[in-house]
Amino acid sequence: MVERSERRKRKKVWGVIVGGTFALLFASISASFFSGVFPFEKSRANPTEGAGLVTPGDETRVSSETPSSHLVPLEDALRVKGIYVTLDSAGTPSRFASIIKFVREHEGLNALVIDVKDNSGRVPCPPPEGVPSKPCAYRHFPGLIQVLKREGYYLIARVVAFQDPYMAALKPDHAIRRSDGSLWRDRDGRLWLNPYDKRNWEFVKNIALWAQEMGFDEIQLDYVRFPDSAMGLEKSGVLMPGSENFSSRSQAIVEFLKYMKEALHGKAYLSADVFGFVTIAKDDMGIGQKIEDIASAVDFISPMVYPSHYYNPGIYGLAVPEADPYRVVSKAIDEAIQRTEGLGARIRPWLQDFSLRIRYGPKEVQDQINAVLEHGVDTFLLWNPANTYTEGVRYVREISKNK
């Protein structure tokens, strides 16, 4: 059972991450917060063996001893309850220590979703040679992942697929472009890689394999879609070479996901982060995301069922959907289960732990969790862009008063 009360308390000395003052801080924090943390009943590596040393000049090396090629048992993956962690949170010792402390203190939490390629195109540290990137200076990152893995955390690498301003500017011929060759921007001014271009598939695959080699158990692809402001672009003179090879945007996205799943086969699970509205829409919404198609190509599908995003009055018969998180999530999960039954993928929703128009506190977050658990889905993820998660929430089942 994945119970925090069953964690075995073991003292453990982990390898010093070298790098001056930063390393000393990180070593101190790790000694305080990583010792004796075993979210899963059976750790996949012997916590008493190997210090996971990251030696000077070799900070980004992934140890060949790391059991990164072995899939976590599906029964464990189906009980994952995690929170999102940005690159900068993972790279800042004091910030990351507070996140680990939060996870340790809340029964049921056992997983971390950590950025490996974020919305700006950044990666934590230099990737393998030949993989273009915009690296941060967090050279301790691979060592950190190995420590977390040995401690039994389920680790999900968030990889932003096609919304990538860095790569689009670096390789304009890989990007969505205007007819004059200039870079096309969506209504928010963002640059996008061309999802039809298989060179971009290979780029995302190489980032995913790098994450898997570091020790991540699962790769979650975000922005695995076309821009939501790109309706009809193929017929408007905008350049997206390769569109002629696919019958629809949905087919392009599904073929990409199948390509990714084959690359990760036997190494890591594959999941897709999708719009919450996929549970309602009958088509691909113009972005290439159709729930039945995606569910046939991945291991886990994570609809973002954030109540704040159901802003149209009348959705699910609710005057203000955002004000009724229990019913919004309950309806969305019910639809997701029905529409994906027998297609292969398991549902693991993203839930809202942030405020938009209505302030969300413990009750609103708890209502969403209860709605998921009461549908027999024992796995979910919480999103807060600032990584500041709500106290006073239980991550195990409670009977909701909102039925």
UniProtKB/TrEMBL annotation:
Residues 82-389 form the DUF4015 domain. The keyword Ion transport does not apply. Keywords: Membrane, Transmembrane, Transmembrane helix. The keyword RNA-binding does not apply. InterPro entries: DUF4015, GH. The chain crosses the membrane at residues 12-34. This is GTP-binding protein.
